[in-house]
Amino acid sequence: MTTLNFSNTVTINELRTIIPAIGVELTPIIQSEPGCGKTSLLHMIREDLGDGYDYIYVDCPVKDMSDIGMVIPNHETQSLEYYVASLFKLDSNKPKVILLDEFMKSPKLLQVIFTRLMLERMLGDVALPAGSIVFGTSNNASDGVGDSMLAHAGNRVCILKMSKPNVDEWLAWAGEAGISRVIRAWVNMFPRALASYTDGNQNDNPYIFKPSSNAMSFCSPRSLAKADVIVRNRDKLGENATMCALAGTIGASAAGDMAAFLSLEKGLLDVRDIIKAPTKVTMPDEIAAQLMIMFQAIDTIETQDDLSAFMEFVERIKSSEVQAIFFTMMMRGSKSVRIASRNQKIAEWAAANHELF
Predict the structure, then answer these.
(1) Which of 137-141, 147-151, 166-170 has the highest mean pLDDT?
(2) pLDDT tens digits, 182-193
(3) For the CA atoms of 13, 19, 21, 23, what is the dihedral angle to 10 degrees?
(4) Long-range contacts (CB closer than 8 Å, 24 or more residues apart) made by 208-216
(5) Contact, 168 vs 327, CB < 8 A?
(6) Is the pLDDT of residue 357 over 70?
(7) Which of 82, 258, 298, 319 is the most exposed, having the fewest neighbouring CB atoms within 10 Å of its CB?
(8) Residues of the chain with CATH 3.40.50.300
(9) 266 pLDDT band (50/70/90 cuts)?
(10) What are the distances in angstroms from CA 61 to CA 75, 107, 137, 347?
(11) Which H or E run includes 184?
């Protein structure tokens, strides 16, 4: 008998496929540590499935019974009828995609109501339209943030552990989302900021969430993205306010280490000037500066000629590993790959450096 090897986790992109595929008949409950993007799955599924569904977000910990539905007297029939809250859009005949966010933090009485929704696609006594999809999210039990589930319900759902995005995955997403080149370059230089406490040997990691710590500000895929608005407004905020705001978002250690990147960016050449004279402009010595230039190029290059010219600059970088970051990000971006995949300079570089991949 062949033994199949598989990881204990699934990626967020795998979940985009899993949830629509099984979510009509079996409810997936997605678990991960804080800030890994579980809630964004509803938006991703909406992008994939389109307007044929109603999309419903339920913030479970802050709901009570009256937010879900109530029993109302029907005087004509002299009976009680269950009325479902407008939150669930049952006035529409479209099937629903319902996210029960932070389901395991729901009050116990609501967990009973939600359990019937997860198992039978019923809200009280009212059925969801055929084809409706239900899924939930939660933190890991080991995170120590109060997540629990009724034992009899756990055996009736599909509990899936979502992996934390690695650096390449997060950088590809961050490029698409328009996250500042400063933050992307910093993450590339400090990959421990996206490590997980479950990886082991992370006790000395000053950046990440750890159940043993009471720190409320730490690096996560979510908080790094949230820090973008601070970086974009740093000239308006001033140095002290910028650093305080960053420390309050991604933690003091990360904010302190990012300060050097913020000061370095001010002196960088614009990519458009580099494209005009790629073999003549001064090459910065700092890897952080090289990275920030490359991330700006990924955002701004739109033509084959510009990419070929910029590759002349990239080939001047002494480290082929640093060059490889530009290649990887160009090939992963949904916009940039359309240019990069047909570029002769990119093809020549890939053939000459195939051992890096």
Answers:
(1) 166-170
(2) 999 999 999 999
(3) 180
(4) 209/33, 209/34, 209/35, 209/143, 211/142, 211/143, 211/144, 215/251
(5) no
(6) no
(7) 319
(8) 12-161
(9) confident
(10) 34, 7, 12, 52
(11) helix 181-189
Q: How far is CA 357 from CA 5, 247, 248, 270, 301, in A?
A: 23, 36, 37, 29, 24
- pLDDT tens by residue, 79-102: 888 888 999 999 999 999 999 999
User: Model confidence over 191-209: pLDDT tens digits?
Assistant: 999 998 888 788 889 999 8
Cα separation, 218 vs 135, in Å, equals 27
Q: Which amino acid is at 177?
A: A
d(CA 11, CA 163): 5
Q: Is 330 exposed, middle or buried (0-12, 13-18, 19+ CB in 10 A)?
A: buried
Helix H or strand E encompassing 114: helix 108-120
Return the closest-CA partner of residue 258 out of 269, 271, 242, 270.
242
Tokens 């590993």 label which residue? 321
CA distances to 11, 21, 23, 275, 293 from 158, rounded to whole Å, are: 15, 13, 9, 52, 44
Size of the chain, expressed as the number of residues it contains: 357
Per the CB < 8 A criterion, the answer to whether 323 and 349 are in contact is yes
* CATH number attached to the domain at 12-161: 3.40.50.300
Phi–psi pair at 54, nearest 5 degrees: -95, 135
How does strand 79-84 pair with strand 69-74?
A: antiparallel
Residue 154 Cα distances to 3, 38, 209, 237, angstroms: 27, 19, 26, 48
Block residue for tokens 């979940």: 15
- Over the stretch 290-325, which tens digit does the pLDDT of each residue have? 999 999 999 899 999 999 999 999 999 999 999 999
CA–CA distance, 298 with 336 (Å, rounded to integer): 7
The structure tokens 């590809």 sit at 172
Bridge-based pairing of strands 96-101 and 54-59 is parallel
Asked whether 164 and 56 are in contact (CB, 8 A), the reply is no
